[in-house]
Design brief:
Layout lengths: L2 E9 L4 H16 L4 E9 L11 E2 H9 L3 H17 L11 E2 L3 H13 L1 H17 L7 H10 L4 H9 L4 H13 L7 E4 L3 E4 L4 H13 L1
Parallel strand pairs: 1-2
Antiparallel strand pairs: 1-5, 3-4, 5-6
Helix pairs in contact: 1-9, 4-5, 5-6, 6-7
């Protein structure tokens, strides 16, 4: 009999390692079919909560925030591209030019989680594809609505949410909750509320960790 697990996946839609980690987790779960079953709940984390609506040039942002030189950034981009490709995700590093505010994306993810967990997963993946594969702005209303439609959710309902402040308090509250529990970097996968798998791990790491948790 398979063991049922609950995973809170804390992440941001503008975090490349979060996309890599989610695809790695999905690959691990495919390998563990019949061993574990999981409920995945996506939890919000903003890497840049103060980012303005105009966004910021990506290289300038990384240089300012992390002090990275152009050569370091180029090396990191190639590592990210290769790691993403290894789990079947296209990271088009040449198309991603700016960093953007992601709060509205998290509001929609919160709503999607109330509608259906499978739709929430589909929306998360659609948002990752929009930003990392096509280089689109995840704060743009049209981009968000296209992702909502791709996930099979109600675009008109999403438009109404974006036009107001619905789910803003819930999203802020969830962000504060996970920060209060010590989550300061993402991705972070918290299994059954007790076990932390930190970082964008390869499938083997998730597989081994989940096996141990399932048999503990």
């Amino acid at each position: 009999m398979s063991k049922r697990l609950s995973i809170d996946f804390v992440s941001d839609v503008s975090c490349p390692w979060c996309a890599i980690g989610l695809k790695g987790l999905q690959a691990a779960l495919a390998r563990l079919e019949g061993v574990v079953e999981v409920d995945i709940h996506f939890q919000p984390f903003e890497l840049n909560p103060q980012m303005g609506p105009e966004g910021e040039d990506l290289e300038e942002h990384i240089s300012r925030k992390y002090g990275a030189a152009p050569e370091q950034m180029a090396q990191t981009r190639e590592v990210i591209r290769a790691r993403a490709a290894a789990v079947g995700f296209t990271m088009a590093v040449d198309k991603r030019r700016r960093i953007h505010n992601t709060f509205n994306a998290h509001r929609l993810l919160h709503w999607a989680g109330e509608v259906d967990q499978a739709r929430q997963l589909a929306l998360k993946l659609a948002l990752f594809e929009a930003y990392f594969t096509r280089g689109e702005d995840p704060s743009d209303t049209d981009v968000l609505l296209a992702a909502v439609a791709q996930a099979g959710l109600d675009a008109e309902e999403a438009r109404t949410i974006l036009a107001g402040d619905r789910y803003a308090a819930e999203t802020r509250g969830a962000e504060q909750l996970w920060q209060s529990r010590g989550i300061q970097s993402v991705p972070a996968a918290i299994v059954n509320g007790r076990y932390l798998i930190s970082g964008g791990q390869p499938p083997e790491a998730y597989e081994n960790a989940l096996k141990k948790i399932a048999t503990s």
